[in-house]
TrEMBL record:
PROSITE patterns: PROKAR_LIPOPROTEIN (PS51257). It comes from Vibrio qingdaonensis. This is Lipoprotein.
Amino acid sequence: MKKSICALVISSALFGCGSTVDMKKSDAVSAQPELTLKTDGTFWGFGPEGSFDIAGLYHGKYSRSASTSSWFNTINSKEGDMVAEITRTDSGETWTLVCSGGGTSVDLGSFSFGGNGPYICQISEAGQAIGEYEMARKSEAISLSTAKKEIGFIRLGSTHFNVESIHEGEGLLMSVDNPLGYSFSRGSQEIAAAQTNGAITLQTLANLPNTEMNTLALGTVASALSWRPQE
């Protein structure tokens, strides 16, 4: 059995030559100011534990891990976990995210079966469950594609947004395998976009109520700071 831990992710983040292409987003969202999410902790915020701040509006801490195991180059098991605490700075409201996901896949030649279990976060406040975040690979049971498109949702109380990973970037002729960011929408309208390629930023439509801003902040942390199981 071979097992690789997310030290590889740290190495890639620190020393890789990744691009800083901006994700595609609606004109209405693009016109809004960027709220930057900054991290601090082990490996300068790229490691398994640390703290974060979102433009002084929200702050918190996180602990995360991910691993991939392989047996006989055929059966692959993936696991990813994160616990995060998020506090709204002006009110002191605090939420806890407890996240996990992964699955087991079987590879037969160029075919892959299964292994796309959803990544789920339970959201609680003062010990009471009040919401959830869920993302799953958008793929068929048998897939030849390397695309890693994800779709899902986040709910905090009665506030709900659809969430979708974005693989199209400004100036790119083709989509990329890994997400450049995540789009939060209601119906056909994009409400916010979280850029995760390069600097982590959140842009939202203007004058959103506090309940929606809280939900989007939690969704950004769940989307941007989690370590998903690597393929």
